Amino acid sequence: MTLILGIETSCDETAAAVITGEREIRSNVVLSQIEAHVPYGGVVPEIAARAHLDHIEDVVARAMDDAGVSLQELDAIAVTGGPGLIGGVIVGVMTAKAIASVTGKPFIAVNHLEGHALTVRLTHDVPFPFLLLLVSGGHCQFLIVKNVGEYEKLGGTMDDALGEAFDKTAKMMGLDYPGGPAVEKLARSGDERAYTFPVPLKGREGCDFSFSGLKTAVRLKVQEIGAVDERQMADICASFQYTVGISVADRTRHAMQVFCERYPKAKHFVLAGGVAANQYVRGKLETVAAEFGMELVAPPIKLCTDNAAMIAWAGLERFRLGMLDELNFEPRARWPLS
Ligand code: KG4
Ligand code: ZN
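That is the input. Now the predicted structure with KG4 docked in place:
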């Protein structure tokens, strides 16, 4: 049985996980640093890097313990090699290299985005190629996932990522970071037609996104109201989410048109990244997928937000294909998938 250790430290979660070639998650430890960053309303790279350094050893030890395997029993060590906050990525990569070097096991540098892209195959039977919408705090793009390591970008955001738009909207109303879950929760009790916000890129060709105009519209509305009460806050969240839903559905239709023309037999539309946890957005996209005879699939929520099982899984897919890396791999702050 193949056993892979995965390590993830590219943002504000220190995470380690062990998975098997039989798609079993033996352990999945995620230590969130959210509390350390809340006072600043977002992730502070220097604080994140130090926190990773403080916790990485314990987190890896716990993942090994929970899995009940020794380092010698591993087949390979996979780690996020980028993109991300470079201080954190370095901590993870150095740890993985150290383990690989003392055990003599293969080292695999995984692109964080590839982790998000392939995780669905850990939990569902999804063959290549599939259409992927990756929506997180730092990323927002459509990709055709043709194979392990073979990606084609159809479109991406011209400014903010979708998770970032949720986070900034939340911050404007004094809600804590990360704002996505808070906005979704408040939106449930709000009236989505209370305020009319402009739909980003409405009627525009292509599969790109833009959220800065919507963000500005929300900011102006909040300023106009002044002291926003509970009711108004819920209405703003609902109206914002409603507008996001229209925009994302519209962009997805464009991406599906391109994808279905090229791969008429492919059936899977995969949603990944932290925003995939949003039930409202998911619902809208399920409807769009059905229009094209496609099926929306998303990993369970705890595998959608950053974790190390996704890195271990992408590592396993690479390991099977002999796609290993050298110990002189250099951590990358930027690393486009396609
Ligand atoms: O994938 P992830 O954990 O980290 C990145 O790689 O960015 O995604 C975190 C992002 C944050 O912006 C967070 O606000 C957003 O995902 N998010 C949500 C929800 N849960 C997390 N956005 C909207 N609705 C949610 N329920
Ligand atoms: Zn992520």
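Residues 178 and 261 are 37 Å apart (CA to CA).
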